């Protein structure tokens, strides 16, 4: 058996998220179907760096799976892609060590959230941006974002109902980029709680509109109360952009 | 009755083109349904600057319709948009003269055709670009395009089966812009025959790949034979960008 690590992009629009669910179209099930075809009917399970919700996209989700097949690294993407629908695409694959785990070994993730701020919606971006036609104070949003950077208990920014115990995460960086009529939030951290990116963006947008002040963020974090933070913005503006792993010693391959 | 001229954008992906067809989802029928609702059930017909085919998009299609309602210009878009699905959007509307005709009065059209030239498809642009992962000689394509500019008989660039008699059109300009991994063809002319833009782009791409030489284009035009030109590229890369009209004397409004 060989363990393969692969980078995959998908358009979340027509998916009920990453994870297999009965009767639903999910990214995981499409990829497993494709791999099962390549393996002549024997089921192959894939494990991702983390689930993504319905309508959330990925530019660089990472997953692993085990295979008895000896296919050169560079041929794997084409082999899988030939069995995938047009909204999922494997970008790269490589043989990795048997102990590599796409979820547990991830040390950093980058998410991008796209917001359309013009007064009229560009319908061609409706699946990939939040349409938010309000004047925003970007400077205040950037200040507020600085309060979120660092190691904090992010209970206030986690959707309730999660069974995760440890709510402490480290956010390395939040960039707010202006690109013509679009705002892009680029968030990097060692991990994100359930809906954490979407609640942070929702809160920053409320700061932008003047409903909250930048310095409110510290109190908000301290309160450890989901009710204090802003709304959860919709999934369709969110992209899982990159997952990083520790550099591994290549002799592990032997 | 008042005649209203409106500018409309649509994502052609899920439409069988502009024109009403029985049992098909078309842009015209969605807009007429919306207008009929505003007019409490009485049917309102709209006339566009021209049809667009299935999966062809519009950034600025122009249409006109007649109405007995007195709604200020700036309120029309919102009124119509509130009854439209999310893939059609009215950008602007204004009262015009009773003799204005969206099709017959158009003096210039601009189309854009988008081509993705990277080796791996960006799935997020799959509905809006032709994926064409081949090395292209852009300089040769630009030279070839110059041969198409001007007043010519474009029979070689018109899909067969049309009942149009006069095949002479004037192409004002063809720009080929490189934007990262994308090529954009911007074509302006006084009018385009059926599939003319798509056949011109298909032919220019063949020049880019070295299958045709730039100077072949003149012969091709002279041949007046659809069989000599390149393939028709798919509709989903095509956008009707703008339609221009003569400036009209404003006293006509009275």
From TrEMBL, chains A, B:
<dbReference type="GO" id="GO:0031119">
    <property type="term" value="P:tRNA pseudouridine synthesis"/>
</dbReference>
<dbReference type="GO" id="GO:0160147">
    <property type="term" value="F:tRNA pseudouridine(38-40) synthase activity"/>
</dbReference>
<dbReference type="InterPro" id="IPR020094">
    <property type="entry name" value="TruA/RsuA/RluB/E/F_N"/>
</dbReference>
<dbReference type="InterPro" id="IPR020095">
    <property type="entry name" value="PsdUridine_synth_TruA_C"/>
</dbReference>
<dbReference type="GO" id="GO:0003723">
    <property type="term" value="F:RNA binding"/>
</dbReference>
<feature type="binding site">
    <location>
        <position position="111"/>
    </location>
    <ligand>
        <name>substrate</name>
    </ligand>
</feature>
<feature type="active site" description="Nucleophile">
    <location>
        <position position="53"/>
    </location>
</feature>
<dbReference type="InterPro" id="IPR020103">
    <property type="entry name" value="PsdUridine_synth_cat_dom_sf"/>
</dbReference>
<feature type="domain" description="Pseudouridine synthase I TruA alpha/beta">
    <location>
        <begin position="6"/>
        <end position="105"/>
    </location>
</feature>
<dbReference type="InterPro" id="IPR001406">
    <property type="entry name" value="PsdUridine_synth_TruA"/>
</dbReference>
<keyword id="KW-0413">Isomerase</keyword>
<protein>
    <recommendedName>
        <fullName>tRNA pseudouridine synthase A</fullName>
        <ecNumber>5.4.99.12</ecNumber>
    </recommendedName>
</protein>
<comment type="subunit">
    <text>Homodimer.</text>
</comment>
<dbReference type="Pfam" id="PF01416">
    <property type="entry name" value="PseudoU_synth_1"/>
</dbReference>
<comment type="similarity">
    <text>Belongs to the tRNA pseudouridine synthase TruA family.</text>
</comment>
<feature type="domain" description="Pseudouridine synthase I TruA alpha/beta">
    <location>
        <begin position="144"/>
        <end position="245"/>
    </location>
</feature>
<comment type="function">
    <text>Formation of pseudouridine at positions 38, 39 and 40 in the anticodon stem and loop of transfer RNAs.</text>
</comment>
<keyword id="KW-0819">tRNA processing</keyword>
<dbReference type="InterPro" id="IPR020097">
    <property type="entry name" value="PsdUridine_synth_TruA_a/b_dom"/>
</dbReference>
